[in-house]
Predict the structure of DNA-binding transcriptional regulator, MarR family.
Amino acid sequence: MKIEDEIKSTIALDISKKIILNVLYTQNVIIDNFNDILKPYDISGEQYNVLRILRGQKGSPANMFVIQERMLARTSNTTRLVDKLLLKNLVTRNVCPENRRKIEVLITQKGLDVLNELDPKVIEHEEFFSNNLSSQEAEQLNSLLEKYRNK
Amino acid sequence: MKIEDEIKSTIALDISKKIILNVLYTQNVIIDNFNDILKPYDISGEQYNVLRILRGQKGSPANMFVIQERMLARTSNTTRLVDKLLLKNLVTRNVCPENRRKIEVLITQKGLDVLNELDPKVIEHEEFFSNNLSSQEAEQLNSLLEKYRNK
DNA sequence: GTTATTTTTTTGTTAAAACATATAACATTT
DNA sequence: AAATGTTATATGTTTTAACAAAAAAATAAC
């Protein structure tokens, strides 16, 4: 569906505006779908993202700075995000012995189990959208987004 | 910059995942830039969006339902969004005489003035990104996003 | 070796989002 | 016209985000 119809626009929009609205709207659709997947597991999208980063560490701990720089949206509330995961026993948190300012965050087995259970659903979610495109179109969309941001 | 570099990914990502991350990240970049424009005017992106919808009504009032269906992200808090605009005298709110359940929201002259002042900055913002693309590429990005959502 | 500076994380406060529930007006049924 | 149902908006409560500022540890300066 065209973006003008999604927002019931009465007037014609120029292409710059349409792209912006389309990116914003597409993100909403992706997020809404993804939250439906996460809901039964009682974790938020941001919390999931942190778990993914920690799993990607393959056993070595991540401090707050490392977590932040790998997140999509740099939030200043990484501490409280990790707090939530800690309450659910999905991560552990320890002071780093070499530099006692730093905090070593590790994913627990329970955290890994949650991710493993989610993996096929996440892949299905990702492919649900990209299956609408040929592989050339998918590559094209990806590189056009990067060119659009131009940084 | 490639999305893998933006999030400092150590492993190769498949295209489905890259597109998702790219859409989410691009949206963050757009929103961050836009918020910088709005900041001096002390209105949020959502509030701006409502003002745009109201201006688009060209003098005829919009009720809460109309506002909601034209917003990008359907929020259940339209009432409180309008509350904020009312406090700043950017809109008026009146009970509809024909159907006293409905609320007629109108943009004020002050609201129109704010939008007029913002207009050139908003256009500049929109074009800042799309200028990185040729007009064919822009059209292509737009239609690929719509095809990707496929609804 | 004490003081200042910088880095890293945490905390406090205020604002906004999310979600469920409530109220109020209108419409329909009996 | 009372009861029931529906629609439109509002409110209460709980989470989450945003921003500033504080705290704690390491590093640098004197």
